[in-house]
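Here is an idea for our session: we take a single protein and study its fold together. Once you have written the record down, we can walk along the chain together.
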Amino acid sequence: MKIIGTGSYLPGNRMTNEYLGVDDDWVYSKLGIKERRTTTLTSAFLGQAASARALFDAGLSSEEIDMIIVATATPSKLNPSTAAIIQDKLRAYSAVAFDINAVCSGFVYAMDMAQKYLNDYKNILIIGTDTFSQITDWNHRDCVFFGDGAGAVVVTQGSNLYHSKLGADGRGQHDFETRHGGTFIMDSKAVYVAGTTFLPEIINQVLEYADITIKDIDWFLPHQGSITMLKEIARCIGLPLEKMKTNMKFYGNTAGASIPILLDECKKEFQPGNRILLAAIGSGWAYGAIILEW
């Protein structure tokens, strides 16, 4: 697998900790978040905007896309799929299009699926797009966590290093859930325990599978859950913090969009041959890790 294009889109509306009336110092020290972006637009709109930029970066027209995979937990409609809506907006009518829902780990799952489809589909557009502000109870203390955004990548076949490991544990299904017509409900302590348990395990498994060590990793792009969680994960796997990329300070947790947004923002720092570790955990629990070569 080779990434040939990236793109991202963040709504213009900034919602600061001060605006929410919460303790800015506490939220920033515990979560790493100063502000987040919010919108009344749909996940499809955000995803289409990020996709257009990824296609431009890849030098491809929409007609050259053979498959569209959208990772979202906040679809524009119950049906049709958000992927179908984006396909129409892009006029990418030659592409197979479908959604997956692994919540915050959705992009990692989608990347893994795309790798398996590349023998039959040349150019695959993978989109992470979420609008969690629209399922947030703004009167609840957990309103500080999420922001809206979208990121997209175009992948094709390549000889680049690629290894992945996925996992799931449905016993955590009630620790983060959103029911039809409702707002998300989260046990933040359970999220922290799951993240700092499952992610180090799956990262060590994928490192072993790739026959490399953490010292061989040049960059770590994790899902942007909280800075406290990410520092503990880095400690558990023995990763220097200077190798870890974050953007939750400005965007909050953008769910399935967080990793592709990071990829788009950080790509200028990557050198050919750099080994990049992606890892995420989402509601379910659903989690995974990918090692890819730039």
In short: Residues 188-210 form the longest helix (23 residues). The longest strand covers residues 148-156. DSSP finds nine helices and 13 strands in the chain.
